[in-house]
Amino acid sequence: MKCVRCRKKGVIHLKRHNAAFCQECFLYYYKNQVKKNIKRHRMFDKEDKVLVVISGGKDSMALWHILASEGYNVTGMYINLGIGQYSDKSQQVVESFAQKNGLELIVKDIKKEYGLDIYKLSKLLKRSTCSVCGSIKRYLFNKVAYDGGFSAVATGHNLDDEAATLLGNVLSWEEGYLARQSPVLESTHPKLVKKVKPLYTLTERENLFYVLINKIEFLHDECPHAVGARSILYKEVLNRLEEESPGTKQRFITSFLEKGRRHFQDAQEKLELRECSICGQVTTTEVCSFCRFVKLSNQNTEN
Ligand code: FES
Ligand code: ZN
């Protein structure tokens, strides 16, 4: 196995590209993929302030590292969601990386700052912890980005995540979600910040290789609530397909973006957006779900 670029000994084989790379050329390939994705989808440029959402896992750590090394104006954002040890450990990893590399980091703690407890809320609302957690995260990403004058919110979604989401949405023909699945979600309201996924063509394995080569510390554990999630099953199924036919995931995503997605444009819900009467963030109801969560949590501690 020789590196396709320099003919030295290859250390990673990427079957879907029918290519092997040595360490140095892998980094070159990785960097190029990220740069191409940013450019092709006009995600942001060097003048833009970019908020990078960090969980402490390999994907977001890789994203933060590559964007900072390429000279983009990035600030990390970490949310402590109060998920026991998982949250404590990930916060430590993220803070120590920021400190060692002199990177800016914004930390939000939903319990300390807003009195929110995702477990209590999920019981009260009869919703899964992941869905409550997801609403809180989406709200805070946007709020912090908007308040801080950021041009984009970047997340570490990789090719495996995107293909699994697409498969899930196709299996139940979630037209609205299909219309919105994209490496770039443009803003549809002056108070909504654009969302981008610069790693959407890179696999979990490639991100792992990137953090290992660069000796970036990351949290190996997944969120404990991810266990048994549908997305994991979809990933397994896609891995099986990928084994038989390398390139399946990438073809699935790129051909969807090129040919499939446009058929769902009409399914984009034309929701009437308004500003929350309490916090002013964008919502479709009088009071946004985040403010409802805060109210509910406070009522419950008073009782
Ligand atoms: Fe939100 Fe796991 S990260 S429930
Ligand atoms: Zn609100």
Automatic annotation (TrEMBL):
<feature type="binding site">
    <location>
        <position position="3"/>
    </location>
    <ligand>
        <name>Zn(2+) 1</name>
    </ligand>
</feature>
<dbReference type="GO" id="GO:0051539">
    <property type="term" value="F:4 iron, 4 sulfur cluster binding"/>
</dbReference>
<feature type="binding site">
    <location>
        <position position="276"/>
    </location>
    <ligand>
        <name>Zn(2+) 2</name>
    </ligand>
</feature>
<keyword id="KW-0479">Metal-binding</keyword>
<dbReference type="InterPro" id="IPR014729">
    <property type="entry name" value="Rossmann-like_a/b/a_fold"/>
</dbReference>
<keyword id="KW-0408">Iron</keyword>
<dbReference type="GO" id="GO:0002143">
    <property type="term" value="P:tRNA wobble position uridine thiolation"/>
</dbReference>
<feature type="binding site">
    <location>
        <position position="25"/>
    </location>
    <ligand>
        <name>Zn(2+) 1</name>
    </ligand>
</feature>
<keyword id="KW-0067">ATP-binding</keyword>
<dbReference type="Pfam" id="PF22082">
    <property type="entry name" value="TtuA_LIM_N"/>
</dbReference>
<keyword id="KW-0862">Zinc</keyword>
<dbReference type="GO" id="GO:0002144">
    <property type="term" value="C:cytosolic tRNA wobble base thiouridylase complex"/>
</dbReference>
<dbReference type="InterPro" id="IPR054306">
    <property type="entry name" value="TtuA-like_LIM_N"/>
</dbReference>
<dbReference type="GO" id="GO:0016740">
    <property type="term" value="F:transferase activity"/>
</dbReference>
<protein>
    <submittedName>
        <fullName>PP-loop domain protein</fullName>
    </submittedName>
</protein>
<dbReference type="InterPro" id="IPR035107">
    <property type="entry name" value="tRNA_thiolation_TtcA_Ctu1"/>
</dbReference>
<dbReference type="GO" id="GO:0000049">
    <property type="term" value="F:tRNA binding"/>
</dbReference>
<dbReference type="InterPro" id="IPR001763">
    <property type="entry name" value="Rhodanese-like_dom"/>
</dbReference>
<dbReference type="GO" id="GO:0046872">
    <property type="term" value="F:metal ion binding"/>
</dbReference>
<keyword id="KW-0411">Iron-sulfur</keyword>
<feature type="binding site">
    <location>
        <position position="288"/>
    </location>
    <ligand>
        <name>Zn(2+) 2</name>
    </ligand>
</feature>
<keyword id="KW-0808">Transferase</keyword>
<keyword id="KW-0547">Nucleotide-binding</keyword>
<feature type="binding site">
    <location>
        <position position="6"/>
    </location>
    <ligand>
        <name>Zn(2+) 1</name>
    </ligand>
</feature>
<keyword id="KW-0460">Magnesium</keyword>
<dbReference type="GO" id="GO:0005524">
    <property type="term" value="F:ATP binding"/>
</dbReference>
<dbReference type="InterPro" id="IPR000541">
    <property type="entry name" value="Ncs6/Tuc1/Ctu1"/>
</dbReference>
<dbReference type="InterPro" id="IPR011063">
    <property type="entry name" value="TilS/TtcA_N"/>
</dbReference>
<feature type="binding site">
    <location>
        <position position="291"/>
    </location>
    <ligand>
        <name>Zn(2+) 2</name>
    </ligand>
</feature>
<feature type="binding site">
    <location>
        <position position="279"/>
    </location>
    <ligand>
        <name>Zn(2+) 2</name>
    </ligand>
</feature>
<dbReference type="Pfam" id="PF01171">
    <property type="entry name" value="ATP_bind_3"/>
</dbReference>
<keyword id="KW-0004">4Fe-4S</keyword>
<feature type="domain" description="Rhodanese">
    <location>
        <begin position="33"/>
        <end position="95"/>
    </location>
</feature>
<feature type="binding site">
    <location>
        <position position="22"/>
    </location>
    <ligand>
        <name>Zn(2+) 1</name>
    </ligand>
</feature>
